[in-house]
Amino acid sequence: MSSTPELGLASMYRFIKKSGADRVSDDAASELRRILEEIAEKIARQAVELSAHAGRKTVKSEDIHLASKNVMKF
Question: Which member of 20, 27, 65, 73 has the greatest number of CB atoms within 10 A?
Answer without folding.
Answer: 65
